[in-house]
Amino acid sequence: MSTDHNGESNADQPAQTHDNAAEDVIAVSSDNSHEGLVNRLDAHTGDGIRHRAFTCLVFDSTGHLLLAQRAPTKRLWDTHWDGTVASHPTEEQTQREATRQRLDDELGVTPDQYDTLRVTDQFEYKRYYENAGIEWEVCAVLQVTLDDITLDPDESEIAGLLWVEYEHLHEHPEWYRQLRLCPWFEIAMRRDFQQ
């Protein structure tokens, strides 16, 4: 696992109240060992608290990646493009279970639309976002290929969708700069092509 840190502290910035601020996330060590539950807002403000997360890259049968634009109501990385969903598992969920739930909740994608949901990587990163907060996560990367690309996106989660040629996006990131990609997705994509 690698560690990727960048940015400056925003410890003196006030935290905004958000719908999911009362939820908990799983605090973890650098090797992803469970260290207890912490408040989600506390984990994402000040200097942050390292916690467990995941991102899932969704492909079609021709190898195109589905980018999802985060809703403008998101507290962190609002309107940035993710590849494709990202979140935090609860204490009762495995990474796969949490990913299945997010695929359904955010995109309306159900398990009958794909065969295998595979964990392909894990990395740690830390990024500050404007004056709004921080991500400090041990992030699992999952990938899935849809047999049926029917989507029913939840507008409170996703503002836009875009299928892109994955290899082209990786080889020519400058052509996609206007999309403002989420940092965890950029790391996951870079590491995917290094393997």
Estimate the global geometry from the Cα principal axes: globular
Task: Give the helix tally.
Answer: 4
Order of helices and strands: EEEHEEEEHEEEHH
**CA-to-CA gap between the ends?**
13 Å
Query: How much strand content do the residues show?
Result: 35-45%
> If strands are numbered along the chain, what order do they take across the biggest sheet?
1-8-9-4-7
Computed structural class = alpha+beta
Which architecture does the CATH hierarchy give at level 2?
A: Alpha-Beta Complex
Count of extended strands: 10
Name given to the CATH homologous superfamily: Nucleoside Triphosphate Pyrophosphohydrolase
Q: What's the alpha carbon Rg, rounded to whole Å?
A: 16 Å
CATH C-level: Alpha Beta
Main sheet overview: 5 strands, mixed
Regions with little confidence, pLDDT below 50 for 5+ residues = 5-16
CATH topology (fold) name:
Nucleoside Triphosphate Pyrophosphohydrolase
**Number of discrete domains:** 1
Describe this entry's structure for a reader:
The protein has 195 residues and is an alpha+beta fold. It has one domain (3-194): Alpha-Beta Complex (Nucleoside Triphosphate Pyrophosphohydrolase). It has helices spanning 40-43, 95-107, 166-171, 183-194; strands at residues 3-6, 24-28, 34-39, 51-59, 64-70, 81-82, 85-87, 114-129, 133-146, 158-165. The protein has a 5-stranded mixed β-sheet with strand order 1-8-9-4-7, with helices on both faces. Strands 6-5-10 form a 3-stranded antiparallel β-sheet. It is globular, with a radius of gyration of 16 Å. Residues 5-16 have low confidence and may be disordered. One of its GO terms (cellular component) is cytoplasm. Keywords: Isomerase, Isoprene biosynthesis. InterPro entries: IsopentenylPP_isomerase_typ1 (IPR011876), NUDIX_hydrolase-like_dom_sf (IPR015797), NUDIX_hydrolase_dom (IPR000086). This is isopentenyl-diphosphate Delta-isomerase. GO terms for molecular function: isopentenyl-diphosphate delta-isomerase activity.
